[in-house]
Amino acid sequence: MTFTPMIEARNVGKEVTLGQETLTILEGISLQVKVGETVALLGASGSGKSTLLGLLAGLDLPSAGEIFIHGHSLGALDEEGRARLRAEQIGFVFQSFLLLPTLTALENVMLPAELRGDRDAEPRARALLERVGLGERLHHLPARLSGGEQQRVAIARAFICQPALLLADEPTGNLDSKTGARIIELLFELNRQHGTTLVVVTHDPVLAGRCERRIEISAGRLLEQEVA
Ligand SMILES: Nc1ncnc2c1ncn2[C@@H]1O[C@H](COP(=O)(O)OP(=O)(O)OP(=O)(O)O)[C@@H](O)[C@H]1O
Ligand SMILES: [Mg+2]
């Protein structure tokens, strides 16, 4: 029996042109992630981890190769189709959080659920913010939150639609070990309860160790690591 993987990347490359120069950021990336699998994406600063995560979310298109999310070719969809696929299936935690500055913590978390017409967006957003330890910060604007608090709001926002695939760029990067441990529990609870596939970029050995598989990227190329 065969199962459609949650992620399949075939020979993906990314180049950017800066003036006269063409810079190769990713090259020959082939990767499969099964439904429900948990994967840590490791690699030095500048190796291409965030770029790859953005391509997997369809936020940007590769210059070569093809990416399938649960069997859907991202390249075959237009911008609107990719946005719909993201809204339905993918939660994304950006390295820089990207919270909307004029919305409160609660409103930021509610937004993706409201956009798709969920009636219970507010109670769910409140419950999630409580789970990430921000029950007392619901009405703060991002500028009034610490870096780690903004990160937790971004994580709650990524969870609210119970995505089939969660792509998280250093989700514990700004957190102390206790808060980080709480976020790690939340990530794996989502995986256990809903079968959410997790791909996390991380330098955190605890988080990487909890994942079933670690893959490493070095200068834009993937080195497949051992299965734990
Ligand atoms: N739009 C762009 N134009 C030019 N260069 C870019 C662009 N985006 C990324 N890069 C370059 O591509 C390389 C990979 O960047 P990326 O952000 O993916 O690294 P990373 O592995 O996430 O690093 P970090 O651990 O520091 O977050 C870097 O050298 C970066 O300077
Ligand atoms: Mg990065």
From TrEMBL:
Q: Which SMART domains match?
A: AAA
UniProt xrefs under CDD domains: ABC_MJ0796_LolCDE_FtsE (cd03255)
The molecular function GO annotations come to: ATP binding; ATP hydrolysis activity; transmembrane transporter activity
Where does the record place the ABC transporter domain? 7-227
Q: Which UniProt keywords apply?
A: ATP-binding, Nucleotide-binding, Transport
GO CC annotations, alphabetized: transmembrane transporter complex
Q: Which SUPFAM superfamilies match?
A: P-loop containing nucleoside triphosphate hydrolases
Q: Which family does it belong to?
A: Belongs to the ABC transporter superfamily. Macrolide exporter (TC 3.A.1.122) family.
PANTHER family from the xrefs?
Answer: ABC TRANSPORTER ATP-BINDING PROTEIN MG467-RELATED (PTHR42798:SF2), LIPOPROTEIN-RELEASING SYSTEM ATP-BINDING PROTEIN LOLD (PTHR42798)
Q: What name goes with this protein?
A: ATP-binding cassette domain-containing protein
Q: Which organism is the protein's source?
A: Aeromonas simiae
Identify the taxonomic lineage of the organism of origin: Bacteria, Pseudomonadati, Pseudomonadota, Gammaproteobacteria, Aeromonadales
